[in-house]
Write a structure and sequence with these properties.
Distance between the termini: 37 Å
Shape: globular
Number of strands: 11
Number of helices: 0
Structural class: mainly beta
Strand content: over 45%
Length: 125
């Protein structure tokens, strides 16, 4: 099982980035995928989740109206489109495989069993 994030970088406030999470080694359409982030000195927090069975999503309040999530089953890839970026979005972003196919409500790390290595997103003011 492997999850590989890409697309991070340095962007000015108000800018956009699209992160990718390429999955391999498991049946991509049987599991939900979540995005998490960890800012310096802070705990890792859940950002967005997309379910595989019903396409359900869950997201944290701070990214509502700015971030969107999508998946390409043919490419086994989940995308996180981040618009109107703010300095407080600066963090290492991780994608993770959930142990079942739906997101439900809330982000609990014990529900995710495989993680990528992360990609750095830095938003300058």
């Amino acid at each position: 099982v492997q999850l590989v994030e890409s697309g991070g970088g340095l962007v000015q406030a108000g800018g956009s980035l699209r992160l990718s999470c390429a999955a391999s080694g498991f049946s991509f359409d049987d599991y939900a995928i979540g995005w998490f982030r960890q800012a310096p000195g802070k705990e890792r927090e859940g950002v967005y989740c997309i379910g595989s069975g019903d396409g359900s999503t869950d997201l944290t309040d701070s990214v509502k109206g700015r971030f969107t999530i999508s998946s390409d089953i043919a490419k086994s890839t989940v995308y996180l489109q981040m618009n109107s970026l703010r300095p407080e979005d600066t963090a290492v972003y991780f994608c993770a495989k959930k142990i079942w196919d739906t997101c439900g409500r809330g982000f609990y790390e014990y529900e995710y069993d495989q993680w990528g290595q992360g990609t750095q997103v830095t938003v300058s003011s």
